[in-house]
Write a structure and sequence with these properties.
Largest sheet: 7 strands, antiparallel
Structural class: alpha+beta
Helix content: 25-40%
Strand content: 25-35%
Distance between the termini: 58 Å
Order of helices and strands: HEEHEEEEE
Oligomer: single chain
Shape: globular
Length: 111
């Protein structure tokens, strides 16, 4: 009985912590092109599916905070994902980017 309560005591925090890491993906579509712009100048562009997927994975797994009550600073630029059907434009900041109502802390190698 003592072992069961130890397992339960260890399992409960792990269960609660796992809920923090299972946030829904912010980007669910597949994209064939990614471009970053700063000051209306093209900073980075790629059609490499591996690089695009790495950026999407980093955004989807990055720490995020809701921005409902934020006063956001001046944006640094934009990050655009596109495919034949649609275009998704994210606002870039020094520490991350925004998507929907979230600020995602992520460092992307865009140079």
């Amino acid at each position: 009985m003592k072992n069961i309560s130890r397992i339960a005591a260890l399992g409960l925090p792990l269960f609660l912590l796992s809920g923090c890491f299972n946030a829904p993906s912010l980007i669910t579509e597949e994209y064939s092109r990614m471009e970053a712009e700063r000051d209306d100048a093209l900073l980075f562009e790629t059609g490499d599916s591996r690089e695009i997927e790495e950026a999407i994975d980093a955004i989807n797994s990055g720490r995020r905070e809701e921005t409902h009550e934020w006063e956001l600073p001046e944006p640094e630029g934009t990050l655009t994902f596109s495919n034949a059907k649609e275009e998704l434009v994210l606002t870039l900041f020094d520490d991350g980017e925004t998507i929907d109502e979230y600020f995602v802390y992520v460092e992307l190698d865009l140079e």
